[in-house]
Amino acid sequence: MSKSTERGLIRMPGGDAGLILGVLFALYAGFTLIGVLLGLDANGLASTLQRITFFAAVYALLALALNLQWGYAGLFNIGVAGFMAVGVYTMAMLTAPVNPEAGGVPGLGLPLLVGIVGGMLAAALVGAITALPALRLKADYLAIVTLALSEIIRITYNSTSLQTFSVAGIRLGTGASQGMPLPSNPINALFYSNARSPASPPTLLGEAVFGIFGPLGIEGTTVVDWAYTFVLIVFVGLFYVVLSRVGNSPFGRVLKAIREDELVATSLGKRTSRFKIKVFMLGCAFMGLGGILWQGSQSYVSPTSFLPTLTFYIFIALIIGGAGSNTGSVIGGALFVGLLFEGPTFVRRLVDQLLSLGDAPNTFVAAVAPLASLDVVPLFSFLLANLASFRFVLVGVVLVYFIQNRPQGLLGHRKEIASSVDLSQRQPQPGRADGGRTLNHFGEDRPREEFNDGEQR
User: Fold this and answer.
1) 3-state secondary structure of 328
2) What is the CATH classification number for the domain harbouring 324?
3) Cα distances (Å, whole numbers) of residue 240 to 16, 153, 224, 237
């Protein structure tokens, strides 16, 4: 990216907010055009844009949490999925009914807010337990430990011995491989009389809102999904503000010093181990909350939701936007979802509708062989038919490109202010005309005409 392009990214109208909105507008325009070409109706278009916004928000949440650890402090945590699982499962066990229906998973029956706070605290506690021994390790070794821990957590929740168990006479459970239900989406309670059944009669608010969007062809379920997505957008804003304040605080400046050179930070009297443990706990708590907000819309969770691939995707989003930049984390999440996660699927649907490629070859060799006669259609058809695998290749290519050509990401070029006050914005005071006040050689401030003969003017 050229320097002129970099300056253009910074000076977008509206600053960082304008840059984020510009990226979202471009994604909306692209997917709206694809939706029109696919023949989607109003509800289909609204549902498509809601799905893009939802995933962009959740990836932004998790990329922001990871940026706190990796972008600010240089801690290579590759176990994001595991800490998400701790937050979600703790919330589920705290809020599950004490006496569930037949085949259900028992819990403590606590309110949802208590479950959310408990999930964040549990994720932070696991982060602290991990940090105590693991932060003695550097770079790749820390990554290996956190990745192993993430898999240990997932396999533990998948264990049949924990499907139901008792602690001090209290029955709990994880549901093992079958998963366990989560509290009903609280947004549903605003629109339906029975939060667990969209088929139930709507509330007064639901009738009013559905009456507005119904004539436009937008279904009630799409409206409710958009309402939950707006809640996620609010949390993205809160994450952004909190982490920006943390980064600009004295605590955040120590984290950046640790990232650049821990030995120098230690030599200045900073107990870097404490700082790393604190930031690791805070980042893990935000990862737990991000997992709760993500899975909370589905009313169900299972260990398969927390595979290592999820952590890999979050890292890709952060790398695209630029580690160390909160704005880059949000933009990276949006671009990853729009161009790499959801984009290929819509492109395949569009190609299938506009072109007739015939049956795809069964093997890669059969798809490549026609290239000898300059026939690319079989290979193209094979790639579209195996899009799930091809997406990994596409993501890998993007990762290699950024590492080689843009390791700092899209917004990683921006300079950070080291002091608490941006001194670069201060303008020097213009010189005073005769008769103004100045200092004599004793450091006294008095009018120039009061100087005695022989004093330096």
Assistant:
1) helix
2) 1.10.3470
3) 11, 28, 25, 5
Non-local CB neighbours of 150 within 8 Å, separated by 6+ positions: 78, 79, 80, 81, 82, 83, 85, 306, 308, 311
Whether the CB-CB separation of 6 and 13 falls below 8 Å is answered with no
Q: Contact, 107 vs 179, CB < 8 A?
A: no
d(C-alpha 258, C-alpha 264), whole Å: 8
Residue 223 lies in a domain: yes
The answer to whether 368 and 77 have CB atoms below 8 angstroms apart is no
- For 251-280, what is the HEC assignment? HHHHHHHHHHCHHHHHHCCCCHHHHHHHHH
Q: What is the DSSP letter of 359?
A: S
- Mean of the pLDDT values across residues 261-281? 88
**Residue 449 domain flag:** no
Q: What is the full DSSP assignment across 97-159?
A: -SSPSTTPPP-----HHHHHHHHHHHHHHHHHHHHHHHTTS-HHHHHHHHHHHHHHHHHHHT-
Q: Which two tokens stand for residue 72?
A: 């600010």
Does residue 361 lie in a domain region? no
> At a CB cut-off of 8 Å and minimum separation 6, what does 274 contact?
none
Distance CA(424)–CA(111), nearest Å, equals: 49
Q: What is the pLDDT of residues 117-165, one digit of tens each?
A: 999 999 999 999 888 876 677 667 888 889 999 999 999 999 999 999 8
pLDDT tens per residue, range 182-212: 988 889 888 988 877 777 888 998 899 999 9
Amino acid at 329: S
Nearest-angstrom CA–CA distance, 317 and 333 = 5
Query: Quick one: tokens of 24?
Result: 């979202």
E strand or H helix that includes residue 302 = none
Six-digit token string for 406: 């843009």
For 365, list phi and psi in degrees, rounded to 5.
-60, -45
> Structure tokens of 365?
């060799």
Q: Give the domain extent around 269.
A: 9-354
- The rounded distance, in Å, linking the Cα atoms of 392 and 33 is 25
Burial of 380 per CB tally in 10 Å (0-12, 13-18, 19+): middle
Angle formed at CA 67 by CA 64 and CA 68, multiple of 5 degrees: 95
- Hey, is 172 helix, strand or coil? strand
- How many domains is the chain partitioned into structurally? 1
